[in-house]
Write a structure and sequence with these properties.
single chain; five-stranded parallel β-sheet; 5 strands; 44% helix
Length: 255
């Protein structure tokens, strides 16, 4: 998937030519050292997020955690995040490998499969499949996070999800259909401000929709159960529309 990383991280990745979007919130719970083993063991619900800017901008991981806490009051929720350019980089990252191989994360969310924008090239899926298989072998429930398509490029979202579905099938894992939820929401209201100005990243409103789908993947709950979840960055009517789209994308009560 196409991406833009913060300038410092971009300089560390060979071949990264994208410029970071200036208006994107770059705060995130990104790990720079190994997680606390005892904290991971003790958490009732623990989620490791591996991905690029589509995962680690706009406070996405913290929003997923807040949604889980909203629906699981009294439970301890721990999230961690490893930044990568693509999953092929994550597979070679010592920190990522250590988290997956030595920490008992209950859920692992994998995003950032490299996908050709033109559709003319095929990139290796082996690294992402191997990471998913390893995490699953360690006892984690693994979810591939299938991103939305580029703005103005019909069919890009379904093509992206199809690739992640192939990887999930090969590793015995599941797919969180984020792009499908975006397509459903935009079909209902085309002027929804889901995209950042670059037509690639998400806004805070888009992040709410993405988080609702990831929340459903982790908890198994219908996103509509988040009707009372407070998210000031989107008005109540917009939140309800987005939750309905997320619910439809994941199958709602049929999950």
């Amino acid at each position: 998937m196409r991406f833009a990383l913060p300038v410092l991280l971009c300089a560390l990745l060979a071949g990264c030519g994208s410029k970071p979007a200036a208006d994107i919130d770059q705060r995130s719970r990104i790990m720079t050292a190994a997680s606390d083993l005892e904290q991971v063991k003790a958490a009732d619900i623990s989620v490791l997020f591996v991905g690029n800017s589509h995962t680690h901008f706009n406070d996405l991981t913290d929003t997923v955690a807040a949604m889980i806490r909203h629906r699981r009051p009294g439970k301890t929720v721990l999230v961690g995040g490893v930044m990568c350019g693509f999953l092929e980089h994550a597979a070679d990252d010592p920190l990522c490998r250590a988290e997956i191989e030595t920490r008992p994360w209950k859920h692992v969310v994998l995003q950032a499969q490299q996908i050709s924008e033109s559709g003319k090239f095929v990139y290796s899926q082996a690294e992402g499949i191997e990471l998913a298989s390893t995490a699953r072998g360690r006892g984690a429930t693994v979810h591939f996070y299938a991103e939305w398509g580029l703005r103005g490029k019909p069919g890009d979202g379904p093509r992206t999800e199809a690739i992640y579905q192939e990887m999930a099938k090969a590793s015995g894992t599941t797919v969180a259909p984020v792009g499908r939820a975006w397509d459903l929401a935009l079909a209902e209201k085309p002027d929804l401000p889901l995209y950042a100005p670059d037509g690639n990243h998400q806004t805070d409103v888009g992040a709410f929709l993405t988080a609702a789908v990831l929340f459903a993947a982790v908890t198994g709950d219908d996103p509509l159960t988040l009707a009372e979840f407070d998210y000031p960055k989107a008005d109540p009517a917009t939140r309800q529309l987005l939750l309905a789209a997320a619910s439809k994308a994941v199958g709602g009560g049929n999950r």
